[in-house]
Amino acid sequence: MQVQDISLDDDFKQSEEHDEITILKDFGLEEDEAQTYVGLAQLGSAKASEISAFTKIDRVRTYKILENLKNLGFATSTLSSPIKFSANEPESILKDIILKQKQKVEHLEKNSSQFLKILSRLKLNEPQIGLPKLTIVSNRNNIYDQMAKIIEETNDRLFIVVTLSDIIRMYYTSIPEVIKKATKNNTNIKLMTGPELLTKLEYIKRLGINKFKIVTLPSPGRLLCSETQVLMSGNTSSQENKNINDESVMVTNSNDIIKNMQSLCEFLWESGEDIVIEEKNNKKGKKSQKQSTILVVDDDADAVNIFADYLEIKGVSTVERCTSGKKAIERFKKIRPEAVFLDIMMPDVDGFYVLDEIRKIEPKAKIIMVTADKSPETTKKLKEVKPADVIYKPYDIEQITRCLK
Q1: What is the DSSP letter of 208?
Q2: Least confident residue range of 59-63, 388-392, 394-398
Q3: Strand partners, 318
Q4: How far apart are CA 240 and CA 167, in angstroms?
Q5: What is the pLDDT of residue 10?
Q6: Within 10 A of 162 (CB to CB), how many other CB atoms are there?
Q7: How confident is the model at residue 317, as a pLDDT?
Q8: Which residue of 35, 322, 387, 388 sits 20 to 30 Å from the alpha carbon of 175, by its own alpha carbon?
Q9: Is the dihedral of CA 226, 216, 166, 236 positive or negative?
Q10: CA angle, 230 as apex, 228 and 235 as ends, to 5°?
């Protein structure tokens, strides 16, 4: 069994500070809408093209976002030519949204009481007892509410099979607190996920779970299985806040389905790899899995961070980040990474110079060149230097995955 000692801060906050984008998403904005509003607040009055350049969001999409922000009361525009947009004062906007939500809750409570009174006066048929029920739940937020409900109702054993992306999203819901409460009440939570979680163990902290399993997931979906009900779906959206309405799960109390899913979960649990998180004097124990280090070099810090985050999700244990060609050479000398993702166009020295210097240090260094330049000159130069691979911007996940393989 693989045991990892992870430092767990006793004062770890039950609800960590959220960034401005996450907070605005809670108020109903999609991620790129929240990003645009924050950018607009930083810029002041600006044209759509300027906002697009600042946020690095496609210009056509930016126009649509700005119109939606206007409709929601987050932004206003001038009657001048060209049109300029500005962010509305945030405090009054957020207060107005909170007030509307409170009014909705009050309205629902009132209608709920009235509906129950009406039903009490009607003669209703007795519900059929013993027949299995099946419910389809749509929208990611509703799905997480249903997951929390199942966890609360389970008092014996519960299998939870989810992807890393789902665990990260659940991190910002009520589910972690519900799991911790269930664990305190002696519910046996058996969490299973894919190997990507090994690079994101901090997301386990809020769950209050000190043991989970790394398994080969049967699908990129969700599966919760207790003794009395099953929640499952075959797929989840790969994007953080897109297509949440397109997601759906099936919930059933069918004994046949429950037995089949329990058998599957028991098989996964028995065949999975144990990961144990232990508190031990706030010191990190040594990781028993093989360490792999990759150096990412690009003068664009955002590009470095996006690239590095994806590598970490794919299981690279250490990703070094560098935004300078000269500094990258010095960094290579110190860490000797297994591979280097190297941008060509940089202001201090270009990628070809860095590649040449790195090969003086390590002739067999694996260097993947990253560029948006497809000119004949650059193509010819790439053929001459013979890197391990070439990724062209705007790159996609398949290109990066190919290089990792």
Answers
A1: T
A2: 394-398
A3: 293
A4: 12
A5: 40
A6: 23
A7: 66
A8: 35
A9: negative
A10: 175
- Residues 388 and 22: their CA atoms lie apart, in Å, by 38
Dist. CA 20–CA 315, nearest whole Å: 28
Residue 233 and residue 226 in contact, taking contact as beta carbons nearer than 8 Å: no
Give the pair of three-digit tokens for residue 291: 């360490």
Query: Residue 287 — left, alpha, or beta (φ > 0 → left; ψ -120 to 50 → alpha)?
Result: beta
DSSP 49-115: HHHHHHHT--HHHHHHHHHHHHHHTSEEE-SSSS-EEEEPPHHHHHHHHHHHHHHHHHHHHHHHHHH
Structural domains of the chain, with CATH = 20-88 (1.10.10.10), 134-278 (3.30.870.10), 293-404 (3.40.50.2300)
User: Are 214 and 273 in contact, with CB atoms under 8 Å apart?
Assistant: yes
What's the rounded Cα separation, in Å, for the pair 79 and 85?
Answer: 10
Hey, what are 316's tokens? 């690279």
pLDDT digit string (tens) for 87-110?
898 888 888 888 888 888 888 888
Ranges of H-type helices in 233-285: 255-271
Q: Distances from the Cα of 342 to the Cαs of 45, 262, 303, 358, in angstroms? A: 37, 47, 12, 11
Integer-rounded Cα Rg, in Å, for the chain is 26
Distance separating alpha carbons of residues 107 and 98, to the nearest angstrom? 14
* pLDDT confidence band for 44 (50 / 70 / 90): confident
d(CA 204, CA 210): 8
The pLDDT tens digits of the residues spanning 186-223 come to 888 999 988 877 766 777 766 777 788 888 887 888 99
Confidence at residue 123, expressed as pLDDT on a 0 to 100 scale: 61
Indicate if the pLDDT at residue 59 is higher than 80: yes
CA dist., res. 332 & res. 339, Å (int):
10
d(CA 139, CA 247): 5
Cβ contact 290:318 at 8 Å: no
Distance in angstroms (rounded) separating the CA atoms of residues 203 and 171: 7
Residue in the structure block whose two tokens are 């990253």: 370
**Cα angle value 373/378/380 (rounded, 5°):** 145
CB 52 within 8 A of CB 36: no
